């Protein structure tokens, strides 16, 4: 037994050494005088098992797009850098650093030039705001176009509080103050006042503010003008630097969990230098808007939006807004079942019949954000990445013709756009059998792709296959008639030699794609076949799939999981049905407990992680009606 446990520990330790890509940046000044030579910065995250935390590091890559010669520098640890940003000309690099001193978080804002650090500000000593936000929902770190100001998001400063009965020295024992400014007077009895926050992974984030650092004046200030019932985030500068554009979430009547939930009421707003606030997205409809991005010429603003109701995540629309006229229109609309690529994407809802060749079918947008730099030089086309049934795919979107075309990947798996500069694309690729790697190319006018791999990850997955499963639901009188799954298993094995682990995803409105997963890789290396199920209700297969599940939770999704399991038992002779186990977390944990209860003699073991099973408690704390 001990030897078997050591074997599994060693498998996990080996797999944990594969880092995952978190961001990439094409350096403007890195495009040297040598023709086609560019410099790229990539940021990675790797599990550090000995320290029981993640290690973050940054790597520099120099590549010649013509000769494909490349050099990768030794990575440097950046674990305490929570945010960084280059100014437009790359004259400056700003770093937000978080350090722990006596278990208390401290934030330092650093400004670097090409030679040294020129500003180092301890934000805590100024007491202008609370903790800095570096999360994906609110976080921003943006230089102004003229490179003299920097924006970021932080927690609003909370007034000091003290007990009603706090003992104080007699007034005659206190020396008179010689300071012109009187200290902040604490609020009595407010030390235990409850403040709503934004929930999971955003605990302690109650009220955000926009902070501006003026480099020339060496001055920090909190921007005013945001209504008190809104929380701002995702801010960018306007083209003339006379104001900011961002996203503001409604906080009344109450804050509900925000992470992974694109259904919360929010607006794209404009705040000018005078503190005048106006909403740019529709305020007459109940919408949730996010991820505003200006075109390089400053004439067009785009963002993502959907209805602020229903499933926690669903199909998004891409909207463009003419900055001079103030008129907006839809570029990519929601997709019910799937449309053929090349058709206008602002009017068709597609067919519920599943196409035989799905390589040319588009199922809608499900991305939570757009790349920070997503535009091509023509100011007409932008790039984005979104889940599509089995993979994360990347697309070139034409905002004039309202059409899109797929960015062809050189490998099977998922392709994600990290950065776009001067028509040079930096992308990340991975699959269930390939950890993260970097690819770069220059997009030609004909969109001919000549990819150059920057990093190659040595792995031992050659003995495994990834299969895409289209499974017919085949239930009467139901609008969505199919769903998908991914099967990871050995290329060759004897009959009934391989146990099966069944893993439905959480959410429930999320989806698996053919992208690297430490958990799936571990099970495969440990000798299991792996079934990842995208039951009806999953995203990335059309809006109809997402909307199908509400009202049927615990029924339709359970039936789909069982049907997918039966499909694998029938299709793969190497799988042993008698050694099938269940593994799931959150809504996936809810499903595996249902499966084990509804089919008690079918599965050998069940593993649940934070399963949604306490109905008495959840009935008062969740906004999921089922």
Automatic annotation (TrEMBL):
Major enzyme class: hydrolase
Recorded catalytic activity of this chain's protein: Cleavage of an N-acetyl or N-formyl amino acid from the N-terminus of a polypeptide
Cellular localization per UniProt: Cytoplasm
InterPro entries per record: AARE_N, AB_hydrolase_fold, Peptidase_S9_cat
Keyword Cytoplasm among record annotations: yes
GO molecular function terms noted in the UniProt entry: omega peptidase activity; serine-type endopeptidase activity
Record's keyword annotation contains Hydrolase: yes
Keywords for the protein's UniProt record, in alphabetical order: Cytoplasm, Hydrolase
Residue ranges annotated for the Peptidase S9 prolyl oligopeptidase catalytic domain, each copy included: 516-624
Any one GO BP annotation for this protein: proteolysis
Primary subcellular site in the record, as a coarse category: cytoplasm
GO (cellular component) term, any one: cytoplasm
Acylamino-acid-releasing enzyme N-terminal domain residues: 9-448
Region (Disordered): 165-186
EC number: 3.4.19.1
Pfam families the record matches: APEH_N, Peptidase_S9
Stated family: Belongs to the peptidase S9C family.
PANTHER family, A to Z: ACYLAMINO-ACID-RELEASING ENZYME, SERINE PEPTIDASE S9 FAMILY MEMBER
Assembly, per entry: Homotetramer.
Protein name: acylaminoacyl-peptidase
Organism of provenance: Cacopsylla melanoneura
């Amino acid at each position: 037994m001990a030897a078997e446990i050591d074997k599994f520990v060693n498998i996990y330790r080996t797999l944990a050494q594969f880092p995952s890509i978190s961001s990439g940046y094409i350096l403007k000044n890195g495009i040297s005088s040598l023709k086609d030579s560019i410099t790229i910065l990539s940021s990675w995250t790797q599990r550090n098992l000995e320290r029981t935390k993640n290690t973050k590091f940054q790597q520099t890559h120099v590549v010649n797009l013509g000769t494909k010669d490349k050099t990768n520098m030794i990575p440097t640890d950046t674990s305490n850098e929570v945010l960084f940003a280059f100014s437009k000309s790359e004259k400056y690099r700003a770093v937000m650093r978080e350090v722990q001193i006596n278990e208390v978080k401290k934030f330092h804002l650093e400004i670097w030039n090409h030679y040294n650090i020129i500003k180092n500000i301890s934000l805590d000593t100024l007491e202008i705001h609370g903790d800095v936000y570096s999360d994906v929902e609110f976080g921003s770190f943006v230089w102004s176009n003229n490179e003299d100001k920097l924006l970021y998001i932080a927690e609003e400063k909370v007034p000091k509080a003290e007990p009603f009965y706090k003992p104080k020295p007699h007034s005659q024992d206190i020396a008179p103050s010689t300071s012109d400014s009187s200290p902040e007077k604490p609020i009595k009895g407010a030390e235990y006042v409850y403040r709503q926050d934004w929930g999971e992974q955003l605990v302690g984030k109650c009220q955000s503010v926009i902070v501006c650092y003026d480099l020339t004046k060496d001055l920090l200030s909190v921007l005013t003008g945001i209504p008190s019932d809104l929380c701002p985030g995702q801010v960018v500068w306007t083209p003339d630097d006379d104001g900011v554009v961002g996203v503001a979430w409604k906080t009344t009547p109450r804050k509900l969990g925000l992470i992974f939930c694109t259904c919360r009421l929010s607006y794209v707003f404009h705040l000018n230098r005078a503190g005048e606030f106006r909403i740019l997205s529709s305020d007459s409809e109940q919408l949730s808007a996010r991820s505003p991005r200006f075109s390089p010429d400053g004439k067009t603003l785009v963002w993502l939006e959907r209805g602020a109701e229903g499933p926690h995540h669903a199909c998004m629309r891409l909207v463009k807004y003419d900055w001079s006229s103030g008129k907006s229109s839809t570029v990519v609309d929601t997709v019910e079942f799937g449309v053929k690529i090349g058709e206008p994407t602002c009017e068709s809802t597609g067919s519920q019949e599943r196409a035989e060749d799905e390589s040319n079918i588009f199922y809608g947008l499900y991305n939570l954000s757009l790349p920070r730099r997503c535009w091509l030089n023509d100011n007409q086309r932008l790039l984005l990445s979104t889940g599509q049934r089995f993979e994360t795919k990347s697309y070139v979107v034409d905002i004039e013709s309202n059409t899109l075309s797929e960015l062809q990947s050189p490998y099977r798996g998922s392709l994600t756009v990290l950065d776009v500069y001067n028509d040079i694309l930096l992308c990340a690729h991975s699959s269930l059998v390939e950890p993260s790697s970097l690819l770069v190319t220059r997009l030609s006018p004909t969109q001919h792709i000549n990819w150059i791999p920057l990093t190659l990850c040595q792995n031992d997955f050659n003995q495994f296959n990834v299969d895409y499963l289209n499974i017919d639901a085949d239930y009467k009188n139901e609008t969505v008639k199919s769903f998908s799954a991914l099967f990871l298993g050995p290329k060759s094995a004897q009959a009934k030699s391989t146990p099966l682990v069944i893993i439905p995803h959480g959410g429930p409105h999320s989806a698996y794609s053919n992208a690297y997963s430490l958990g799936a890789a571990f099970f495969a290396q440990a000798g299991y076949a792996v079934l990842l199920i995208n039951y009806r209700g999953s995203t990335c297969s059309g809006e109809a799939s997402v909307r199908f599940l509400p009202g049927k939770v615990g029924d339709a999704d359970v039936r789909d999981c069982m049907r997918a399991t039966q499909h694998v038992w029938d299709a793969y002779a190497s799988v042993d049905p008698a050694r099938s186990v269940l593994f799931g977390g959150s809504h996936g944990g809810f499903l595996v407990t249902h499966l084990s209860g509804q089919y008690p003699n079918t599965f050998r073991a069940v593993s649940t992680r934070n399963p949604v099973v306490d109905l008495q408690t959840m009935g008062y704390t969740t906004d999921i009606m089922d």
